[in-house]
Design brief:
Strand order of the largest sheet: 1-18-17-13-12-9-8
CATH architecture of the domain at 256-364 and 440-539: Orthogonal Bundle
Radius of gyration: 22 Å
Structural class: alpha+beta
CATH class of the domain at 256-364 and 440-539: Mainly Alpha
Number of strands: 19
Bound molecules: glycine
CATH topology of the domain at 256-364 and 440-539: Serum Albumin, Chain A, Domain 1
Helix content: 25-40%
Distance between the termini: 32 Å
Number of helices: 18
CATH superfamily of the domain at 256-364 and 440-539: Gamma-glutamyltranspeptidase, large (L) subunit, C-terminal domain
Length: 556
C-alpha cells in the first residue's frame, strides 16, 4: 500500500465551508458517532452502563427516530453489520418490503408513463417498515441489558422534548407545505415556524415507543400501532395492510467479505448493492497508481471504475430472494480487472458505449448512518433510512412518526431514473413482498485480524462512492479519520455521464485536465454524512463526525 502525503485537504475542506479539524474525538475505550449529538449521547450512556455495541446501536436508532426525524426512523428500514471482538461477523437486513398488493406498473399511467411524485410522496410511496423488527432481532441475538433501558431514553426525549438544531429547524420549515399537502390529517404539532433552540415534543411518537417498549415487535406490527398505520394508509389511498405489517420479517444475511491491500472488508449483501459495489470499486483500483488525493489521475481512475460498477449495479443487482444476483461473479477479482482492461489514462469511456458485464447466469439523500465500538472490542455499523428527507412526508396520525418513501428505490419503469438518477431493470422491478435495491454500505474493516475501521454514510446513490473515498483517504492518502470524513467528495454513477463534485473538492487545474480527458463536470451541494471510527495503532479510537451535518462523536 503506498503512502502519499496528503496536501490538498485543508484547501478542499475550507472551500466547502467545512472546518478542517485535523483529528476527531479520541477516546480510550468506546465511541458512538451518529447524526445527532443527543443520539450519540444516548448510545454512549448505554455503553457506560455496561451494554455492548448492539445494545448501544438499538438505543441510538430509537433516539435518532425522535431527534433526527429527517432520516432517523421507526417508519423506515436499514442494515446492520456486526463484528464481535472474537472476529465473528453478522449482517442484518431490515430493509422495507413492497406491500403484497403492489405491482410492477403501480406508478405508471395507462400510457405507461411514470406518474409524477407517486413513488416519492404520499401514502403509496411507502414500503413495509423494517426498523423495529430489525432492532428486535438484533436484541434477541446480541442484546445484554434490558429492552426497556434501551428504548426509555428515546421515550423521554419524545415526551419531554429537546431543542432543535438550526439545521433541523430549517429542514422542518422547508417541508411545511409538504406536511400539509401529503397528510390527510395535518400534523399540527409539526406545522409552525421553527427556530433553532425551540423545544419540540413528539407526544404520539413517545406513546408508540412505549408500546414497542412494553410489547416488543407486536407494539409496532400488531395492535394499536398497526391499526393506526393501516387507517392512515386507507385515508390516503395507500395499499399497506395489517397482513403486510404482521408478516414483515428482517433477515440475517451472508455478509460480503473481501480484501483490499491485505485488509479485510466486511459489508452488506443484497438487497443492498453497497457491499458488492464497494468491493468491485476497491478491486478495480487495487494495485493501480492513484496519485494525490482528488488529483486528475486519482479522479479519472476512480470515476472510470465507478462508471463500470454502477452499470453492473443497474443490471445485475436486486433482492436476491427474488432475482438471481451473480454475487460471486461480480466480486471476482479477475472479472473486475477485466472490466478495467480498456481503461485509458488519456480519455474517458462514454457511458453510452459501456454496458453491464455479461455472465453465463440466467436519496435530498436522507438516510443516516452511525458507527459504534464498545469497550469489549465489538463493533456495529448501521445505516438506516426513510429514503428522501422526512420520507413520504406522511406522519401516521395518532402514532406520530414519518413513513418512508422507499418504493422509489425500485426501478419503477426500466431505464427511468429514480430520485437519485439511478436507473435499473428487471433485477429491481417491483414485486409483492420484494425488497427494493439499496445503496447503503455499512462497512467494517479489519487489519491484521483486528478491528480497524467502522464506516458508512447516507447519500442515496453517492453512499457507495463516499465510503470508497473515505477508506482510500485513510489507506492511500494517510489522512486521520476526521480528515478523511471532512475531505471534499467526487462521484460518478455511470448515468448521467457526469462527474459530480462538491465545491472545492477539485482544483481548477485538475478540473481542466479532467475536461481534457473528456469528462463532464457538475458541481453540487454537500452530500453524504460519513460517521466513522478508526482504531489507532495504540488501540485508542478516533471518531470522524461529518461536519456537513450536526453529527457528533461521543465516547470515553
Ligand atoms: N434509500 C437509499 C438507499 O437505500 O440506497
Amino acid at each position: 500500500m503506498k503512502k502519499i502525503k496528503y496536501v490538498l485537504l485543508v484547501l478542499g475542506a475550507y472551500a466547502c465551508n467545512i472546518p478542517a479539524n485535523e483529528t476527531g474525538l479520541i477516546t480510550e475505550k468506546a465511541m458512538v458517532v451518529s447524526a445527532h449529538p443527543l443520539a450519540s449521547q444516548v448510545g454512549s450512556a448505554i455503553l457506560k452502563q455496561g451494554g455492548n455495541a448492539i445494545d448501544a446501536a438499538i438505543a441510538t436508532q430509537f433516539a435518532l427516530a425522535v431527534v433526527y426525524p429527517v432520516a432517523g426512523n421507526i417508519g423506515g428500514g436499514g442494515f446492520m453489520v456486526i463484528r464481535m471482538s472474537d472476529g465473528s461477523v453478522n449482517t442484518l437486513d431490515f430493509r422495507e418490503k413492497a406491500p403484497m398488493s403492489s405491482s410492477e406498473t403501480m406508478y405508471l399511467d395507462s400510457a405507461n408513463n411514470v406518474i409524477e411524485n407517486l413513488s416519492t410522496r404520499g401514502h403509496l410511496a411507502s414500503g413495509v417498515p423494517g426498523s423495529v423488527e430489525g432492532m428486535v432481532k438484533a436484541y434477541e441475538n446480541f442484546g445484554t441489558i434490558s429492552w426497556v433501558e434501551l428504548i426509555q431514553p428515546a421515550i423521554d426525549l419524545a415526551l419531554n422534548g429537546f431543542p432543535l438544531t438550526e439545521r433541523e429547524a430549517n429542514g422542518l420549515n422547508s417541508n411545511q407545505k409538504n406536511f400539509s399537502t401529503y397528510n390527510t390529517l395535518a400534523p399540527d404539532f409539526l406545522i409552525r415556524d421553527w427556530k433553532a433552540g425551540d423545544t419540540i415534543r413528539w407526544i404520539d411518537l413517545g406513546h408508540t415507543l412505549e408500546r414497542i417498549r412494553d410489547n416488543g415487535r407486536a407494539g409496532f406490527y400488531e395492535g394499536e400501532t398497526a391499526a393506526l398505520i393501516v387507517e392512515e394508509m386507507q385515508r390516503g389511498n395507500g395499499i399497506m395492510t395489517l397482513e403486510d405489517l404482521k408478516n414483515y420479517d428482517a433477515q440475517w444475511r451472508t455478509p460480503i467479505i473481501g480484501s483490499y491491500e491485505g485488509l479485510k472488508v466486511i459489508s452488506m449483501s443484497p438487497p443492498s448493492s453497497g457491499g458488492i459495489a464497494l468491493m468491485q470499486l476497491l478491486k478495480s483500483v487495487e494495485g493501480r497508481e492513484l496519485g494525490d488525493h482528488n488529483s486528475t489521475q486519482a479522479l479519472h481512475l476512480m470515476t472510470e471504475a465507478e462508471r463500470r460498477v454502477y452499470a453492473d449495479r443497474a443490471t445485475h443487482l436486486g433482492d436476491a430472494d427474488y432475482y438471481n444476483v451473480p454475487v460471486e461473479e461480480l466480486l471476482d477479482s479477475a472479472y473486475n480487472m477485466g472490466r478495467m482492461s480498456d481503461f485509458s489514462t488519456t480519455a474517458k469511456t462514454h457511458s453510452d458505449s459501456l454496458a453491464a458485464g455479461v455472465f453465463a447466469l440466467a436519496e435530498s439523500e436522507q438516510t443516516t448512518h452511525f458507527s459504534i465500538v464498545d469497550p469489549f472490542g465489538n463493533a456495529v455499523s448501521v445505516t438506516t433510512t426513510l429514503n428522501g428527507g422526512y420520507g413520504s412526508k406522511v406522519v401516521v396520525a395518532g402514532a406520530g412518526f414519518l413513513m418512508n418513501n422507499e418504493m422509489d428505490d425500485f426501478s419503477i419503469k426500466p431505464g427511468f431514473p429514480n430520485y437519485y438518477g439511478l436507473v435499473g431493470g428487471r433485477a429491481n422491478a417491483i414485486e409483492p413482498g420484494k425488497r427494493m435495491l439499496s445503496s447503503m454500505t455499512p462497512t467494517i474493516l479489519e487489519k491484521d485480524n483486528q478491528l480497524f475501521m467502522v464506516v458508512g454514510t447516507p447519500g442515496g446513490s453517492t453512499i457507495i462512492t463516499s465510503v470508497f473515498q473515505t477508506i482510500l483517504n485513510v489507506l492511500e492518502h494517510d489522512m486521520t479519520m476526521q480528515q478523511a470524513v471532512s475531505a471534499g467528495r467526487v462521484h460518478h454513477q455511470w448515468k448521467p455521464d457526469k462527474i459530480f463534485y462538491q465545491e472545492g473538492a477539485i482544483s481548477k487545474d485538475d478540473s481542466l485536465s479532467l475536461v481534457k480527458l473528456g469528462h463532464e463536470l457538475q458541481q453540487r451541494g454537500p452530500y453524504g454524512k460519513v460517521d466513522a471510527i478508526l482504531v489507532l495503532p495504540d488501540g485508542k479510537l478516533e471518531g470522524g463526525a461529518d461536519p456537513r451535518g450536526d453529527d457528533a462523536a461521543v465516547g470515553y
